UniProtKB/TrEMBL annotation:
<dbReference type="InterPro" id="IPR000073">
    <property type="entry name" value="AB_hydrolase_1"/>
</dbReference>
<dbReference type="Pfam" id="PF00561">
    <property type="entry name" value="Abhydrolase_1"/>
</dbReference>
<dbReference type="GO" id="GO:0042619">
    <property type="term" value="P:poly-hydroxybutyrate biosynthetic process"/>
</dbReference>
<feature type="domain" description="Poly-beta-hydroxybutyrate polymerase N-terminal">
    <location>
        <begin position="3"/>
        <end position="101"/>
    </location>
</feature>
<dbReference type="InterPro" id="IPR010941">
    <property type="entry name" value="PhaC_N"/>
</dbReference>
<dbReference type="GO" id="GO:0016746">
    <property type="term" value="F:acyltransferase activity"/>
</dbReference>
<dbReference type="InterPro" id="IPR029058">
    <property type="entry name" value="AB_hydrolase_fold"/>
</dbReference>
<keyword id="KW-0808">Transferase</keyword>
<protein>
    <submittedName>
        <fullName>Poly-beta-hydroxybutyrate polymerase</fullName>
        <ecNumber>2.3.1.-</ecNumber>
    </submittedName>
</protein>
<dbReference type="Pfam" id="PF07167">
    <property type="entry name" value="PhaC_N"/>
</dbReference>
<feature type="domain" description="AB hydrolase-1">
    <location>
        <begin position="102"/>
        <end position="322"/>
    </location>
</feature>
<dbReference type="InterPro" id="IPR051321">
    <property type="entry name" value="PHA/PHB_synthase"/>
</dbReference>
<keyword id="KW-0012">Acyltransferase</keyword>
Amino acid sequence: MTETMNSNSKTLTSPFEDVCRQWHQSAKNLEVFNELLTRDAKIAQTPKQVIWTLNKAKLYRYTPQVHEDQRHRIPLLLVFAIMNRPYVLDLRPGHSFVEYMVNKGYDVYLLDWGIPGPEDRDLKYDDYVLEYLPRVVRKLKSYTRSNEFSMLGWCLGALISTMYASLRPDDGLKNLILLTAPLDFSDKEAGGFTKWVNHPSFDPDRVVEAFGNVPGEMIDAGAKMLKPVENYVSNYINLWENIEDTSRVEAWHAMNTWVRDIIPMAGAGYRQLITEFYKENRLIEGTLELRGERVDLGRLRANLFNVIAESDHITPPCQSEGVMDLVGSQDKELFRVRGGHIGIMAGRGAEKSTWPQMDAWLGARSD
């Protein structure tokens, strides 16, 4: 017999009852596990409203949470990548970068590029940088009545933001934050996607001809295969081992919801990314032209805060570091964070390691 006791009574249970209890808990855990894999979590709950649209793109303004006289004067525009949904910046209440910045007194705006349809297969970075983003900026400045603004670009959003800041240095961009920015592809052995896309057998033209817009499933599989054991095995083992830890489960569920919500990339933009950036490194070489305008990094004069993830396997640090020597910014800082491509902003420690540093840097330059 197994003996358990509390302060008021003594309860005896048999080994059979213990086994039954364990099986019951395991069955319950398995049910929760399956539900987490198939049901979406509630995400992107910070209040916001749409203030502008163009084609599939939308510009959101988040509802301020502090009194007007406590807000920073300069508004903040968030620009995420074109092949993922941007709500990773607003995953869940209590663990949302957007919520954090709104509560710190920033007037926060988010550009959602939307989901490209077959009719958008010809969209290129020329369009994102010289058509979409300038229109967003005009709307932002008109809406806020501010001639200056800050911009945060993450991943390919950082690439787009860098090109815009270089081509339109007089449009009012005061502060630029880059997160895991894929800019310099000179090191062909750097890891990440670099070695794959430079393989002689890889032909982006054939991919685009076959699909039009490149399926999100293909891009997602490529990213996961950079760390196959971690993504396809360890991720689910860790979930099972922590299935009774509510906080960890909620965090995993929110992130998994974002990971599963994959979207395609416009075909022309994909071809341009592989050929002109990864293969030919035109931005760093100074030979990149968008609609006939040469992108000169030396013209980028905004205050620059360049955030690098030390364990980034998507954008290795060497793809972000070199830009510091090429930009014309007088006020510039390189900040390294322990963690991976997504974890530095959406991982469990982001609110302690990354967000406060960004707030401190930006806050000192936003009033």
